[in-house]
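Quick log. Single chain, no ligands specified.
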Amino acid sequence: MEQLIIKQIETKNVLTKSNLPVSDYSVNPYVGCTHACKYCYASFMKRFTNHTEPWGDFLDVKIWPAIKNPQKYAGKELFFGSVTDPYNPQEETCLRTRTLLEQLQGSGITLSIQTKSDLVLRDLDLIKTFPDARVGFSINTLDEAFKDDMDKAVSIQRRLSAMKQVYEAGIRTTCFISPIFPGITDVPAIIDRIKNQCNLVWLENLNLRGSYKSAIMEYIKERHPDLISLYDEIYRNGSRFYWETLDRSIRSYAEENRLEYVRADDSMKNPFDAPPVIVNYFYHEEIKKTARKGG
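-> predicted structure:
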């Protein structure tokens, strides 16, 4: 890895209207992400930001004018972390996420945060002031060695510990099992581990596109050669069979464990009752924007 390139950039607004099924606005206090996930879809942003550095080797720290009238976002859901992690290690000193939380105090927004970091614990005092706030942790393996192959974020154990602390603080908590690597990610094992310390489980399949497709396929070839035919079937031939089979398997698992299991475009009873609700986001192209109220 080359030396990390960090710079400040000025931006007019850190909130962007969102097309995500889970929010009205996307909030990204940084450009780039030093967690350097090998499968990160957000690496496509380099096409628009003129960064030539490898994904994970740069971070632009956004500076924006103070939000003078945060109440104009009242009733809207703001999703922190659609194309960066709002708790990159650099957030510890840059404080851009914490600054924004302070600026949004009393705004009446619904706050959603997605992270791979336990640094979010630092801001529990602020997060708890937002009614119905949600904090999600991305966990797609319990194998620390595989995690280290894929990203530079904190350990799975630290994420699990942080999730428990957020949940016990009375904040709605999500485990985002994403991306699910076919033949590698053990979804039931992860749910077994976290089902007593979160309200909601999101499932998302590994989508391979853009520059990282070849890197992931090469990794599978080198480290999991027994899976290469499966990955060819899914990612070269476009087969859905694996995901349809996994869908049925998780539905059976949920029934056996008395958990609610729905697809993202289905109606839900109460997505934050315990035990957790499992939500399948496998088929993004079929998800309606209105489904976000289930997440």
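The mean pLDDT is 90.
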